[in-house]
Write a structure and sequence with these properties.
single chain, 140 residues, alpha/beta, Rossmann fold, four-stranded mixed beta sheet, three-stranded parallel beta sheet, 6 helices, 7 strands
């Protein structure tokens, strides 16, 4: 977990911004990590899992309740935009580029940062979520 998550959540709360974690990861371990660091009440959408004798069944469910085979993050970005939200996007992976392109502000690290730079997309690099909170404080 990157340092500064609580500060970022608090910043978004002060500004009355909806904070949503949209992840290609598994919901059960994201929830466990957040619980273990004392952060509760976050809206998290991620892969739903079912444990059974044959192993682990993983499913991505879109904002419309239907199963998705791909473009999970794009589906949620489109849904938020369709609800009238403006997007501030934070990401670090290859799967973040397409939804980040739909946002008004991109905070990027890792592969996303490299891709934004190669495509000449405006973005703000970060290593610590306190940097993101500081920048968001200045947004109108």
């Amino acid at each position: 977990m990157r340092p500064g998550l609580q500060e970022l959540v608090d910043c978004c709360c002060r500004k009355d911004f909806r904070f949503v974690v949209v992840s290609n990861g598994l919901r059960f371990y994201i929830d466990d990590i957040l619980h273990n660091i004392g952060i509760t009440g976050l809206e998290v959408v991620a892969a739903e899992t079912e444990f059974n004798p044959a192993g682990l069944r993983v499913q991505y469910i879109g904002p419309d309740g239907k199963y998705l085979d791909n473009d999970f993050k794009i589906a949620y970005a489109d849904s938020f935009l369709g609800q009238g939200y403006r997007l501030i996007y934070l990401g670090n992976g290859a799967s973040d580029l397409a939804p980040a392109k739909k946002s008004g502000h991109i905070f990027a690290t890792g592969t996303l940062l490299k891709r934004c730079r190669s495509e000449k997309l405006a973005c703000i690099p970060f290593t610590d979520l306190r940097q993101v909170a500081s920048a968001i404080e200045k947004l109108e």
